[in-house]
User: What shape does this take?
Amino acid sequence: MELETIELSGIIGLIAIACLAANFIVGFIIWKNIQFKLPFNLTFLGLHKLTGYSAAIAIIVHIILIPLDPKSEFSWGDLLLPLWTKHQPYANTFGALALYLVAVVVISSYFKEKIKLGLWRTLHYISYFAAVPLIVHSIWTDPKLEDRPIDWFDAEKMFVLLCCLVIIALTVYRFLIVSKSTSK
Assistant: This one.
């Protein structure tokens, strides 16, 4: 059985969402100032950067592979403005929005030393807003671009749902539960 380019893109998309979920977990550990030793003299900040940049690279590769598969019927322009694509235009538009928001976070993190901390922190919070279109895109998209309905029991979709649950739970805890308890 031959692996199609669009399937490879889907697998790399799964890697991207796993890296983002891991990035949220590590960011949560940094925020809570949880102390434990990592192997190989790795720091949590280093791990946070590794998972963040890995997610960004995986997202870029995921996107670049799509128009390389003739079955996708995607043009290079469709990657930037996918609302008019033949397959799943709304789901792909959510993916593009997530890409733009994640790009702001990654680029601002790369230039963190050159911008004011307050501005960087505000831009970094965009990652929480980027999670919303990312989750919608990840759940709604048919990875083979065959416009099939969501298969909630597909192993890949279950993996996506697990990653999304991690991201949602950490976000809710950080902004709703903790902010409620600190405001009392």
